[in-house]
């Protein structure tokens, strides 16, 4: 079994208790992702377990994609919390998209705690054939 330790977890817990942060994370929460190319699309998947779909915001401005989400505690304010290790609060991540991607046609889908984005490759960036003329016949080559 592999265990990953977080040396700052106890400091966060102490800071929350001392300063009364009531369940908010004192440092940015992690939003793990995978990104890969599939055919004519780039696919980006973010892990957002426990996040309601209506709390997710997606914005694109000048080829910068911003994902924001918020996770609230599942218990009431008057609950006596024994252990609180799951990050809560606002999550945010930015991706810088290349000029070859079509940011006007991004598709987003959220299911089972995974936000999936499909970003198509722009038509002008796709490989195309160029006709060559000259001599007695025309040829086509891949560009």
UniProtKB/TrEMBL annotation:
It comes from the Bacteria. Pfam families: HSP20 (PF00011). Residues 24-135 form the SHSP domain. InterPro entries: A-crystallin/Hsp20_dom, HSP20-like_chaperone, Small_HSP. Belongs to the small heat shock protein (HSP20) family. This is Hsp20/alpha crystallin family protein. It comes from Amycolatopsis acididurans.
């Amino acid at each position: 079994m592999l265990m990953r330790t977080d040396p700052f977890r106890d400091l966060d817990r102490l800071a929350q208790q001392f300063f009364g942060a009531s369940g908010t994370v004192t440092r940015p929460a992690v939003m793990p992702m995978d990104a890969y190319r599939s055919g004519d699309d780039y696919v980006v998947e973010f892990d957002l377990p426990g996040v309601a779909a209506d709390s997710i915001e997606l914005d694109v401005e000048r080829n910068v994609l911003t994902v924001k989400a918020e996770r609230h505690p599942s218990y009431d304010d008057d609950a006596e919390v024994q252990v609180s290790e799951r990050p809560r609060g606002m999550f945010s991540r930015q991706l810088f998209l290349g000029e070859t991607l079509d940011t006007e046609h991004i598709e987003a889908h959220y299911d089972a705690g995974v936000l999936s984005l499909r970003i198509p490759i722009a038509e002008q960036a796709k490989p195309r054939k160029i006709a060559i003329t000259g001599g007695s016949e025309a040829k086509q080559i891949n560009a």
